[in-house]
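Quick start: what a row looks like.
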Amino acid sequence: MIRKIIGSLIALLAGCAASPQMDSPLVDKVEMQLARADKFDSHHAYIYLARQQAIATAKKLSTSKAKENLPLFGMTLAIKDNIEIAGMPNSVGHKLLENYQPATDATVIQRVKDAGAIIMGKTNLHELTYGITSNNSAFGAVANAHNIDKFAGGSSGGTAVAIALGLADAGLGTDTGGSARIPAALNGIVGFRPTTGRYPNAGMNMISTTRDTVGPMAKDVATVARLDAVLADEKLAHEEKSVPGKLRIGVPKSYFYDNLSADVTKGMERVFKALADSGVELVVADINNIGELNDQVGFPIVLFETRQLLPSLIKRANPGLSLDDFIEGISSPDVKGIVSSLVTTPIPEDVYRKAIDSSRPKLQSAYATYFHTHQLDALIVPATPLAAQNISGSDETIMLNGNAAPTFPTFIRNTDPSSNAGIPSLVIPMGTNFEGLPIALQLDGPVDSDRKLLAIGKHVEALIK
């Protein structure tokens, strides 16, 4: 009898030792986040939940003896559905592409996997990444994390909402003119656009080879900095550049501060006070011709390059589908209108070449001159002129200070110029408006100052909390 009891105990202990994942906090976290994803399904944050893959990865990591060598160990990630992951759907928000499953990972996905991250699934977006609300008629409008009637921002709305609602620790969006930073701003999280080219774009379904980049997003700057190091393949995951003893931050009031909501204006004033009280020197100075230069760059480049990129996307994701049928299959009216115009009235090549060869270099020079002339470490502007608006009725226009304003140009106004110049840009929450909706600030830095800008961002984040 005693031998049987001892034998049973030994067998029980052996079973526990062989299955440590049963009590794994990492597995518990993944299962909890999957349960939250089900609970908040009405926000339409995810297009595809990788349930089995996420739990399997968590179990595997739980038995790993190399935790210290994995800079993203156990970090759960929500990935925008235009970044390819082997064996997972990759729709780019378009119904006719939803059966496409890439055979290989995008380079950035391979890097985060190698660093110990867990992929939770593919997130919803503004269809084909062409918009800033994430009102996707194919897979459902992405609802703001703070109010289900408000839009999430876009085009990386699903990733931002997944993070804000605790469905993932962090995530990857993409950014053409604000597509990672705008939804980060509207959902109260941190969003980063690196210097263009800092991260590899292989395996990302782009609309612009010149402007597109992956954009990491998280609840705090420190987590974004960890992601940045891995994405850039730098051994800096646990390091930060030191913040200069006396920060000089530019405040370009003209253009960036025009026609703001009262809440955003008050929010920026609170930030200015916190920075000044801490010893940061605020330098009020404008960037010459910023609006005019930006207008000459943005749309000519992205519209021309989209027309060149679409056929290869269709051939890869749905062979045999014609361009006409692809356009006809676009579910979101605003996107169908834009893409149709690319075919019927394409951007002339000479207009594109002028934007690439003349206007963009002038814009980049204007930023470089601004930072150098005023000896600035960064500049600060509101991320968006106002908080998230109602999903219903906002596809074309929204109300700003009592007047109708075009939705897309209004929300990208402050994120677009740094995108076109290719400089690093960081969005940080700065509180909420009278409805409890997030508002945010944006820090831009000189080209290739990414790690320094993240360090400054971490400093500013701490000052305004």
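That is the whole record. DSSP finds 16 helices and 15 strands in the chain. The first strand starts at residue 46 and ends at 49.
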